[in-house]
Each structure stands twice: as C-alpha cells, then as structure tokens.
Specification:
Number of helices: 6
Radius of gyration: 15 Å
Helix content: over 70%
Number of strands: 0
Order of helices and strands: HHHHHH
Number of domains: 1
Structural class: mainly alpha
Largest sheet: none
Distance between the termini: 6 Å
C-alpha cells in the first residue's frame, strides 16, 4: 500500500503549502484574520513574523515533495521521514505553546504519514 504513504506525504505537503499562503499572503486579510482569530491591529503588527513562519512551512513542503520525487521506496524515504519528523515536532510544540488545534491539523497528519511510510 505504498500509494497510501505517498498520498499522506502529499497531503502534509499540501497542508504546508496552504499554511505558507495563509501566513505569507493572507495573514492581514479578512480570511487570514478570521482563520487565526486576529484583530486588524494584531495582524498588522505581526505580519513580518507570520511571513517568516510561512516561509519555513514552504521549506517543509518542499522537502516533502523532494522526498516524493526521489521515491519512497528509495532515498526519498529518508528525506520524507526527516521532514515528516520536523513537521510532527513543530506540531507538538505548537500545540503545547499556541493552540491544541495544531496537534490535530499539523502533527497528527504528519505522524500518520510517518507510520504509513514505515509500513509501506
């Protein structure tokens, strides 16, 4: 069932591309403010920080896509597992320090992808 592992890794990559868009381009727009529960003032004050965070999410997505491109049956597996581990750790840290919701939105999909890659 390697296709399940590939699909889960791709899902986590797509989620992080979505986070990139939210944090880099929509942070201070109505949709971004609603998503993160921010006032206009807070969004304006933290825009640069959010853009930096979005860039990191883009790097995580790029690493996961690189792992898929290399192939999960070969050297791409180690690459994908490394980046999935980074996503999982970041998700657990975010859940502990910012919002428990991050555990479900970020860490759980990445952890499920790790299991799927290891089992495939």
């Amino acid at each position: 069932m390697p296709w399940i592992a590939q699909a889960l890794v791709a899902l986590v990559a797509l989620l992080h591309l979505g986070f990139l868009v939210l944090e880099m381009f929509l942070w201070d727009k109505p949709f971004g403010r609603r998503t993160f529960g921010l006032s206009r003032e807070m969004a304006t004050q933290t825009r640069a920080l959010a853009a930096n965070q979005g860039l990191y999410n883009g790097f995580l997505a790029a690493g996961l896509l690189w792992g898929l491109w290399l192939g999960l049956g070969g050297s791409g597996e180690a690459v994908a597992l490394f980046f999935l581990g980074c996503v999982t750790v970041a998700g657990v840290f975010g859940a502990a320090t910012v919002s428990r919701r991050i555990l479900w939105v970020q860490a759980l999909p990445a952890a499920l992808a790790v299991v799927a890659v290891l089992v495939a």
